[in-house]
Specification:
The structure is a homotetramer. Helix content of chain A is 68%, strand content 0%. The first copy, chain A, is elongated. Chain A has 2 domains: 60 residues, Homeodomain-like (Arc Repressor Mutant, subunit A); 122 residues, Tetracycline Repressor, domain 2, CATH 1.10.357. The longest helix of chain A has 28 residues. By secondary structure, chain A is mainly α. Chain B binds a DNA duplex through helix 1 and helix 3. Chains A, B, C, D: Pfam families: TetR_C_13, TetR_N. Chains A, B, C, D: Keywords: DNA-binding, Transcription, Transcription regulation. Chains A, B, C, D: InterPro entries: Homeodomain-like_sf, HTH-type_TetR-like_transc_reg, HTH_TetR, Tet_transcr_reg_TetR-rel_C_sf, TetR_C. Chains A, B, C, D: This is TetR/AcrR family transcriptional regulator.
DNA sequence: CATGAATGAGTATTCATTCAT
DNA sequence: AATGAATGAATACTCATTCAT
C-alpha cells in the first residue's frame, strides 16, 4: 500500500470544508462563472493564495462543490432518502417538493443547471452527474415498478422510459420559465392521472 | 413629400442582421457570457466601435439575438409552423425533432437555457420568453384538445396542465444530462402511450 | 474689400448660436472636458456630424463658448457695465456679487477657471482671456484712481498693483475652497478697510 | 512572538511611495483627468494590475497623491514651516515664493486647483483640503496678529478676515492669468503697503 | 501551511472625429 | 447644409493564477 500524500491534518480538513461551503454559497448567489474566488476565500476567512493551495484551479473547487451539493443538498431536502411503499405518492411528493424548492432557492438549481452544461467539457463533472442521475433514475424506476406490482401504476408502462421522462420533467421544472398561470398548480395531479391505473 | 430624417438605409439594416447572426453564432459557440463583443464584431466584419453604434451595450445585443432566435430558430426547425391534424403525431415529431436538434446543436439550447435564467433579471428578456412560452403552451394544448375531439387522446386529461408538463419535458430534454443508455430511445413511444387512449 | 466666405444665412447663424448656448450649458454642467459633443449637439437639436460642420473640432467650439461667456455672462451679472461714481462702493458690490454668483453657479466659474488653465496651450483662448482681464484690470484701476481723486481711497496706493491684487482676490474667491466659517462674511468690509482712507 | 498576518513589508511600502510619486508627476504633467493609470504604472515600473492592487480605483490614488502633495510639496517649498518673528516679512516671502513657484511649476498648481474643484464631489478630498486650508488660514492669521502686537501691522484689521482675503489672493495668484505687464512685480510691495502701519 | 505581492491577458465601453452621400 | 454610418485609439478596471518567502 503506497501512500502518496500524508493524511491531511484535522485543521486542513476543516478549511477544505469551509471553502467548499463558501464556494457553494457564492455560486448559488452569483452563478458558476459569476462567483469570484476572492470572495469565496474571504467568506471562508482565508486569502486567495490559500484557496489555491487547497484547490489549484477554480475548476477543482467547482468539482468539490458539485460533490458536496449532490451529497448534502439533494437527498434529504427532496425526501429521496425516505423509504416509500407507495411509488406514486413518492413521485407526487418529489414533484411538489421540487417546485417549492425551485421557488425558494432558484440559485441552487441554476447552479446545478450550469454544472450539467459544464459537465459536457469536464469528465470529472460528467462522471459525478452521471452517477447521480443513474441513482435517481433507478430510484424512480423502482417506484414505478413497485406501483405496477401494487396495481396502482398502469401495467402497460415501461418503467425505464417513464423514469427518464419524469427526470426530464423535473429538470425542466426547476427552470421554471414564465408560463400561463394556473396550469402549474395542477401538475402533480396531472402526472398522477397519466401514470395511475384508470380505476384509481 | 420631403423626408428630413432619413430612415436607416438598407446598408444599416443588413449590418444589423449580420451582427445579430454573428452574435447568435458566438453565443452558441461560447455561451452568453463567454461570447466576446470583439469576436462578434470581427465576425460581422466591423470594429467594436461600430458594434456599439448599433447596440449600445452587450445586453441590447443579447435581446436582439433572443428575438432572432425565437423567430428564426425555433419554429421551422421543429415543425411548429406546420398544420397538424393529428396532435399526437405532432407531439411525437416535436419530441423526436428536439432530441435530434439538441444533439446536433447543444450550444443552441445552452444559449436558450442561459437566456431563460438571465430573464429573471432582465424584464425585456422575460417578456420575450414569456410570449414564446405562452405561444408554445397554447399550441401544445391545442394539439391535445384536437386529439381529444378525435378520440385519439385520453379524454380525462386536462389539456392545460398536460401541456405544461410536456413543456417541462422538453426543457429538461434539451439539457440531455448523461442517463443510462436505451431509455431515451423509447421516450417518444412512452409519451404516446401515456397520452393516447388505450384502444389506439 | 475681399470677401473670403459667403455670408452665412440667417438659419446657419441661428444654429451657431444655439450650439454655443448648448455648449455653454453643457460645460457649466459637466466641465470643459466632461461636456460631450454628442450631448451638446442633441441639446441644440442637431446631430454630431452637423456640430462638426459648424465647429470642426471641440476646441473651436470651446473658443466660441468662451467668447460668448465673456460677452454675455460676465458684465451685466456683476454690475461691471454700470457707471459708478464711487469706486469703493463699486468694488464692494463686485466682491459681494461674485461671492453670491459663485455660490449659485459654481459650474460657471469652474468653466472659466478651466478655460484660464487651458489658455496656456491655446493662443486663441489666451488672447481672449488676456483682453478680458486687461479690460477688467483697467476698470478696477480706474475705480481706484477715481477713489483717490475723491479722497476716498488711500492716496499712497499704486492703482495698477492694487487692481492686480484685487483680481487675484476675485479669482481665488470664486474657487471657494472650504474655509473656517465666518471670516468670509467680513471680506467685503475688510477689503474696504484696507483700501479706504483712515478718516472715512 | 509569532506574527500570523505579516504587516505590509518594506517592499510594499516603497512601491506605494513610488506609485504616489509617479502619480503626482503624471498629474502635474497632464492634469487630474489627463493622467493615465497606464502611464503612472509604467513610470513606477509595475503593471496596471499591480497599480490596482495598491489603489483599487483611480480616485483612491488621487486621494493619496493629494495627501502626499499637501504634506511634501506645500510646506517647505513655501517657507511655511519656518518660524517667523516678522509676520509681514513672512507674508511677503510667501507671496514672492508662490509667484516664483507658480511660474516654475504651473502643473503643480493646476493639479491643486483641479483637486479643489474635485473636492466638491469627493468627501475624502474635501476633508483633506479643508484641513490644509484651515491650517494655512490659522498660520496667516497668526502672522497678522503677531504683526499687530509688534505694531508693524495695522491694528484696525481683522486678522481672520484678512487671512481669508490673503488666501484668496494666493489662490488667484497661482492661476496667473495673462495680465498687463509690470503690475505683478509690485504685488508684494503693495500687499505690504496695504497691511503695514503708515509709519513704517 | 499560509500569504502578501504581483501579473497576463483580457473586457465592455467611450468619444471626438471623418466621410460618402 | 446636413446626416447616418463608421472608426481609431483609448480607458479604467477585473480575475484566476503564480511564487518567493
Amino acid at each position: 500500500m503506497s501512500v502518496k500524500r500524508a493524511k491531511p491534518g484535522p485543521r486542513a480538513e476543516e478549511r477544505r470544508e469551509r471553502l467548499i461551503a463558501a464556494g457553494y454559497r457564492a455560486m448559488v448567489r452569483s452563478g458558476l462563472e459569476g462567483a469570484r474566488t476572492r470572495d469565496i476565500a474571504a467568506e471562508a476567512g482565508i486569502t486567495i493564495a490559500t484557496l489555491h493551495y487547497y484547490f489549484p484551479t477554480k475548476d477543482d473547487l467547482v468539482r468539490a462543490v458539485l460533490e458536496h451539493t449532490i451529497r448534502q443538498q439533494m437527498l434529504a431536502p427532496l425526501g429521496l432518502d425516505t423509504d416509500w411503499d407507495d411509488g406514486l405518492a413518492a413521485l407526487r411528493t418529489l414533484v411538489t417538493g421540487l417546485m417549492r424548492h425551485a421557488d425558494a432557492e432558484p440559485g441552487h438549481f441554476r447552479l446545478l443547471n450550469e454544472m450539467i452544461w459544464a459537465s459536457r467539457e469536464d469528465p470529472a463533472l460528467r462522471e459525478m452527474i452521471a452517477a447521480w442521475h443513474t441513482d435517481w433514475h433507478a430510484t424512480v424506476a423502482g417506484w414505478l415498478r413497485g406501483g405496477q406490482e401494487d396495481g396502482r401504476v398502469r401495467a402497460d408502462l415501461d418503467p425505464e422510459a417513464t423514469a427518464t421522462l419524469i427526470i426530464y420533467v423535473v429538470l425542466g421544472l426547476v427552470t421554471r420559465p414564465p408560463l400561463p398561470d394556473g396550469a402549474e398548480d395542477r401538475l402533480g395531479a396531472e402526472l398522477h392521472r397519466l401514470l395511475a391505473t384508470v380505476e384509481e
